[in-house]
Amino acid sequence: MHVEKTLSAATSAVESLLVKQPIAKAMTGMFGFLFVSYRAELMLICVVFLVDLITGVAAAIRAGEFQSAKFFKGCTKLIVYAVFILLAVGTDFTVSHHILGMDVSTRIFLSVTFSFIILTDVFSVFENLEKLGYSTPRKTFRKMVLNLKK
Questions:
Q1: Which helix (H) or strand (E) holds 150?
Q2: Do 102 and 96 contact (CB within 8 A), yes or no?
Q3: Cα(145)–Cα(130) distance, integer angstroms
Q4: Rounded Cα gap, residues 92 and 70, in angstroms
């Protein structure tokens, strides 16, 4: 129950942040009709992307390596993600409607795309946290495996 309340609060916070921004409003208007049933996945991608961006900037500042060109490259990653998502939606539609002759979209390519994007950014967050000196599940898992070998 506590997890559901936390998830609901996080979703509400991200929604209010996105709704107040004019660029987010424009993007929602342009692409919102495509993703009516993918709201949770898109919200998760936005949250993980923002955490990745924040931890990446913090790690770069701490190492004294912050460069605006690298920051811009990190921001353009969101545009690349949007292109991949649109391609996955088109591929799912083409496969399900034109190749398989179904009336319902399969969502296979979109699910793989969402999973890839989320996992890529989660591992990037882990790397950034390690650069900041924090322990991550990746380090913990490595320690568990080394202890089993002893």
A1: none
A2: yes
A3: 18
A4: 33
Per-residue CA distances from 86 to 15, 19, 125 (Å): 21, 21, 24
CA distances from 125 to 71, 88, 89 (A): 15, 24, 26
- Is 5 in contact with 37 (CB distance < 8 Å)? no
Longest dimension (CA), the chain: 57
Residue 126 tokens read as: 């882990």
Its pTM surpasses 0.70? no
Per-residue pLDDT of the chain (150 residues; tens, 9 = 90+): 554 565 555 555 555 544 555 555 555 544 544 555 667 788 888 889 999 999 999 999 999 888 888 888 888 888 898 899 889 888 888 887 766 676 666 678 888 888 888 888 888 888 898 899 888 877 665 565 566 555
d(CA 81, CA 143): 33
CA 40 – CA 11 distance, rounded (Å)? 8
Full DSSP string of 64-95: T---HHHHHHHHHHHHHHHHHHHHHHHHHHII
